[in-house]
Design brief:
CATH architecture: 3-Layer(aba) Sandwich
Structural class: alpha/beta
Order of helices and strands: HHEHEHEHHEHHHEHHHHHHH
CATH topology: Rossmann fold
Strand content: 5-15%
Distance between the termini: 40 Å
Number of domains: 1
Number of helices: 16
Largest sheet: 5 strands, parallel
């Protein structure tokens, strides 16, 4: 199926087109007046959003897929849904480690989850030289216009995973990610600080275009990969945005109803309610970037990113 952010030519829509898509969905939510408080409904819509994105071969069998796997609730529940359905799913986890740094949190936790759930996991561990070369390749692909510390860090994780995937067997042409989950279910600190949490969720869907979509689209396009984003599914957006703010942030837990839905789908509470760091932090690529900046006598990570284009 075609993602909301792609046009009929499978190219990224413009910002104005994306804004129109979000506004149209908002009008549908506002006009319905419906309120959804059921974790079961969220679970069902999420399962449908994941499975409809799995490609099938000519005889109707599921083709193998990949998951950008951090061990957070988003990637874990996607992987579990796929695995439970019998899809041949491969989970790719990226981390940085040097002699002074402990193993990346995402690697530690995701290995435990993969072992317990029986998932096939591929781990990419990077040293300093590999991280630097990765950042240089990443900068060229996402271009100077889209390059900043966050985008280089996040895209670096995606790059490292996809570079390994295209060399592996079997060939994987579809990769799942959790893009959109934070916006739908209020996963950021800025949601909690906002005067109106729901309004901030809608604002986030608008601004995810330049913050996330352009970056992820460019990386996926470079590798010829189909980026599957079940959290940006039309029906799931319509459903999630009918959930009251009080169920998205509850008992000081962000994305509370999504975590409850994950438990309902069979994911252990320990993993469903695990606090998650952003990709660049959980993988420790942010740590690598900081150390590379220091090694090169630069003031900060921002200057390091600028130097990648020299």
């Amino acid at each position: 199926m075609r993602e909301l952010f792609l046009n009929n030519n499978d190219e990224l829509v413009s910002q104005s087109e994306w804004n129109l898509i979000v506004d149209t969905l908002r009008n549908r939510v506002d006009s319905s007046k419906e309120i959804i408080e059921s974790k079961e409904i969220i679970a069902q819509k999420l399962k449908e959003a994941v499975l409809k994105r799995v490609p099938k071969n000519l005889v109707g069998e599921y083709e193998p897929v990949g998951v950008l796997f951090s061990g957070g609730v988003d990637s874990t529940i996607i992987a579990k849904i796929l695995f439970d359905e019998g899809v041949n799913v491969f989970c790719y986890t990226v981390g940085f480690q040097d002699e002074e740094t402990k193993m990346a949190d995402d690697v530690i936790v995701s290995k435990k989850i993969s072992r317990l759930l029986g998932l096939k996991q591929k781990i990419v561990l990077l040293n300093f030289e590999e991280a630097h070369e990765l950042f240089k390749r990443t900068a060229k692909i996402i271009t100077k216009e889209n390059a900043n510390v966050v985008n280089i860090g996040v895209a670096g994780v995606e790059m490292a995973a996809l570079e390994k995937a295209i060399k592996d067997e079997p060939e994987i042409k579809t990769f799942f990610g959790g893009l959109g989950s934070e916006e739908l279910f209020a996963g950021y600190l800025r949601h909690l600080k906002a005067d109106d949490l729901q309004e901030e969720c809608w604002n986030g869907l608008h601004t995810t275009y330049f913050r996330d979509l352009k970056r992820d689209y460019l990386v996926a396009k470079h590798f010829g990969i189909n980026l599957a984003t079940p959290f940006l599914d039309e029906e799931l957006i319509l459903t999630a945005m009918k959930v009251p703010a009080s169920l998205k942030y509850k008992s000081e837990v962000k994305k509370h109803i999504l975590r409850e839905a994950s438990v309902y789908l069979g994911l252990a509470q320990e993993f469903s309610f695990r606090p998650k760091k952003a990709a660049q932090y959980g993988s420790r690529l942010n740590n690598a970037m900081h150390k590379l900046a220091v090694r090169n006598g630069l003031d900060d990570k921002k200057e390091y990113v600028e130097k990648l284009f020299d």
